Amino acid sequence: MLTRIWNGRVSDVPRMSLRVSQPSEAPAAPATDWETATETVLVAASLHGEPGAFDVIVARHRRQVYQLCHRFVGNHEDASDLAQDVFVRAFRGLGGFRSSASLATWLYRIAVNVSLNRVAVKTPPLEAVDIREHADDSAEPADAALLRAERSTAVRAAIARLPRKQRATLILRVYHDLPHQEIADILGCSVGAVKANFFHALANLRKLLA
Amino acid sequence: MKHLAHADLVDWLDGALPRDRAAHVDGCARCRDEAQALRQVLEQARQIAVPEPSPLFWDHLSARVNEGVAAAPRHDLARTAWVNLRAPLLAAAALCLVVGLALLRVSAPSDEDTTAPARAAVHQPGAIGSTAGETLAADDGWSLVQLVADDVPLQTVQDAGLVAEPGSAERVALELSPREQAELALLLRQELKGSGL
């Protein structure tokens, strides 16, 4: 089966894939074989039902996807559900993925869409900020830590009140450090629109926090 | 003096503003104040961290994804291609059949006696257009449709109101007699077989 992947779809498969392309002669490829595979190979293998290939895609991107979802919904439970949903949707839609695009960008796009859909349906509860996370090792006074926690809660609540595109742009730019062009690809808009949304997100945040 | 536009301010925050425009910020109180205010709120936003889940969570998430994937339909490149092409192919096949059958109903004489010669004619070698496939050519119904339709100008068809519109296929299919429906099913099967699907 993988021989078809090798011949028909993937020209830059690493040598290790040649070994696993003969399942009739060798046992199933161990999971470690996929660890070094390119994303194109992993996508093609996943489409052909090769066990382990999609697991590696998940393992490579789960942290970013979970954190992105968490930025939108503000709590672990919903972020966890959404992250699962993102990968299941990605698997179902893998046939539509174009290898010319970045898999990370594609996953981000799915994550943004499912997260925005979720917050449009219901406003998830923001998790309480744990003061200990804000406590400085250099013995920050308790009142200062409390103040920082309150400020943090206010900022998170303000971000949650931003319009959809502004919120998505701010999250992708500030917390995922993505370039404007990639954000434009994810959100399906121009770089100019991304910059405008980013500016207005910050300006609105400033008003909300004033 | 041209003040910084929104995009300029974003570039300034990124440190990507051209030097001459960046110099403007130093000399313009309005732009400087706005830029500093944006930088301040940006710094505030950057302080917000996502709580790190338990180290065990990641494997748990992968397991949940596996469960979801196992419940999802298995993918196949050929199947994906078929799914993408299925609707237009079936629509094209249905459109051809609907137009042909509608022509048959309008043009074919109702008298069995006058139909008989026509049916006989389609069995004559050469009576059918050479473009018809062998399989379809062997089918009387399809051959008759071709025979009749070949002599009917397109304008006549349009004048008769036989223009396919959304929903036409469904309406006509519902009006067919059981025998005609059986014939339609046969022709659809042949069409699908002929297209390699």
Key terms for this structure?
heterodimer, A: 210 residues, mainly alpha, 12 helices, globular, B: 197 residues, elongated
Could you explain the architecture of this structure?
The complex is a heterodimer of chains A (210) and B (197). Chain A is mainly α and 210 residues long. In chain A, 69% of the residues lie in helices and 0% in strands. In chain A, α9 (142-160) packs across α12. The radius of gyration of chain A is 21 Å and the shape is globular. Chain A starts with a helix and ends with a helix. Chain B is built from eleven helices and no strands. Residues 112-132 of chain B have low confidence and may be disordered. The chains are: A mainly alpha (210), B mainly alpha (197). The A-B interface holds A 46-49, 54-55, 58-59, 62-63, 66-67, 70-71, 76, 80, 83-85, 87-88, 91-92, 94-96, 127, 130, 133, 148, 151-152, 155-156, 159, 170, 174-175, 192, 195-196, 198-200, 202-203, 205-206, 209 and B 6-7, 9-11, 37-38, 40-42, 44-51, 53, 57-58, 61-62, 64-66, 68-69, 72-77, 79-80.
